[in-house]
Write a structure and sequence with these properties.
Layout (H helix, E strand, L loop, with lengths): L2 E9 L5 H14 L3 E7 L2 E8 L1 H13 L11 E7 L7 E5 L19 E3 L1 H9 L4 E4 L3 H6 E3 L13 H8 L7 E5 L4 H12 L4 E5 L2 H8 L7 E3 L1 E2 L6 E2 L5 E2 L13
Parallel strand pairs: 2-5, 6-10, 7-9, 9-10
Antiparallel strand pairs: 1-3, 1-4, 2-3, 8-11, 12-13, 13-14
């Protein structure tokens, strides 16, 4: 059986996020879905897998169903497949935030950088005055990244603000293009940089996954593989499965 995998997130006001946990868990369980979903006051973030028709029902309920009442009508969604179920169980967790940066001024619901579609990304990062910045953890960067991208050398996304404070200067770095796995870390990272006075901040819409899905390998500036936080471990161009199972690597989810 081929499993359909949905990676999704949206920053949205969910003051009732605690009350949403059990009905969301019941929805997933009723559809025999497995994976991980985070709920917080600032939104939702998750990756789940199951039968293709079950995933379609789940996504429809998130975006248009009564549970969220239309608040998730702008979900960032990426779909891929897995030959085997890439999750061992279902987890729906409550968190203070859906992605941790530690900067209250970084609010993606107020301001974010300029989204760049996958088809337009190559031209942006090829420009000589563009600083291309990988916002992911060091072990992810080691598996693959874009040509010429700067590796901040962080162990977790929470360290990104320290890197920017020490290494980036609004007067010197006038155009910054950032990317991450699915886009969520760049939402906060771009909000953080804008709050610090950086003028031109761009980020890859849909992240690396969308780029690998849409850009032909012959035209790609991506090198290596993209780490994903499930038992497929890594994906290549066309979102083809790679690598070992995640428990053999022992890395915690950061997106």
């Amino acid at each position: 059986m081929i499993h359909k995998v949905a990676a999704f997130y949206q920053f949205a006001a969910l003051p009732d996020y605690r009350a949403l946990r059990e009905p969301l868990r019941a929805l997933c369980a009723g559809l025999a879905l497995k994976g991980s979903v985070l709920l917080a006051q600032e939104g939702i973030n998750g990756t789940i897998a199951g039968a293709p028709e079950a995933i379609d029902v789940f996504v429809h309920e998130l975006a248009q169903g009564a549970l969220f009442g239309g608040r998730l009508n702008n979900l960032e969604l990426k779909f891929s497949t897995a030959e085997a179920m890439p999750f061992g169980r279902l987890k729906v967790r409550l968190k203070n935030v859906i992605v941790t940066l530690g900067d209250e001024a970084a609010d993606p619901t107020r301001q974010v950088g300029t989204y760049v579609k996958a088809a337009e990304w190559n031209a942006l990062i090829a420009a000589p005055d563009t600083l291309v910045l990988d916002t992911r953890n060091a072990f992810e960067v080691a598996m693959g990244t874009f040509e010429g991208a700067v590796d901040p050398g962080i162990r977790s996304f929470g360290q990104f603000k320290d890197f920017t404070a020490k290494q980036l200067d609004p007067a010197k770095h006038r155009r910054i293009a950032m990317f991450c796995t699915g886009g969520i870390r760049c939402e906060k990272a771009s909000a953080h940089l804008l709050a610090r006075g950086f003028a031109e901040v761009y980020h890859l819409k849909g992240g690396i996954l969308k780029y690998l899905e849409e850009v032909p390998e012959a035209q790609s500036r991506w090198r290596g593989e993209c780490f994903v936080f499930d038992e497929r471990v890594a994906l290549g161009h066309g979102l083809r499965e790679r690598g070992l199972r995640e428990q053999e690597l022992g890395h915690d989810r950061d997106e």
